[in-house]
Design goal:
By secondary structure, the chain is an all-alpha fold. The chain has a single domain, classed as FAD/NAD(P)-binding domain (3-Layer(bba) Sandwich), CATH 3.50.50. Helices cover 28% and strands 0% of the residues. The radius of gyration is 18 Å and the shape is elongated. The termini are far apart. The relative contact order is 0.16.
Length: 105
């Protein structure tokens, strides 16, 4: 192991994150690192399912970025719900029931 001394005012260390996408691994498209692939509206490959935060393929896995992505996802989901009446049907699509019922071991 090589040791180097750096003259700096601060250091930012980020550890590699492993996304916990087990509940949706068979429902939405994942990238090679197991993160949920989303578009700019936080939509996943499954219509009506939105994702945000460190489990997605966004740039910069930071708290503030995740907060902003969560807000974007909520706005996009609300708009989609109004346009498609997802929320007025009173029932959840079968593929979402499985994810909603997931209990980690």
């Amino acid at each position: 192991m090589e040791i180097k001394e750096l003259d700096t005012d601060c250091v930012f260390v980020e550890k590699e994150l492993i996304p916990n996408t087990e509940p949706v691994k068979n429902l939405v498209e994942l990238d090679s690192q197991g993160r949920i692939i989303i578009n700019s509206y936080n939509q996943t490959s499954l219509p009506g399912v939105f994702a945000a935060g460190d489990i997605t393929n966004i740039y910069a896995e930071q708290v503030l970025v995740a907060i902003g992505e969560g807000a974007k996802a909520a706005l996009a989901a609300g708009q989609a719900g109004q346009e498609t009446d997802y929320f007025g049907r009173g029932e959840m699509p079968p593929e979402l029931e499985k994810a909603a019922a997931f209990t980690p071991e």
